[in-house]
Design brief:
- The protein is mainly α.
- The protein has one domain.
- Helix content is 55%, strand content 0%.
- It is built from four helices and no strands.
- Helix 2 runs antiparallel to helix 4.
- The longest helix has 24 residues.
Length: 91
């Protein structure tokens, strides 16, 4: 989902409608993680992906910029909540 998006818009400006959202039940994309190390890697990847500074300069329209910043901040908070809960699988 995100790999294709990030490749398509590598240096191009983006609009809010273009940004894919992860499913609410798997915010960090770790549903297939079978070890704590794999889970941590997913968590780290999402923290880097959703860091608000990354999105700040990439917005096409001013209205989108504010909404994308809010989305990035909300996603960062969601990933941090998952990180706080920790790995809950089997190792």
């Amino acid at each position: 989902m995100f790999n294709g998006f990030e490749h398509r818009v590598a240096d191009a400006p983006i609009e809010l409608r273009m940004v894919p959202r992860p499913p609410a039940h798997d915010v960090i994309g770790a549903s297939g993680a079978t070890t704590a190390a794999a889970w941590r890697k997913c968590c780290q990847r999402q923290l880097l992906r959703w860091h608000p500074d990354k999105w700040a300069s990439r917005c096409m329209a001013e209205s989108d910029a504010q909404e994308i910043q809010q989305l990035a901040a909300a996603m960062t908070r969601a990933v941090l909540r998952e990180k706080e809960r920790g790995y809950r699988g089997r190792e």
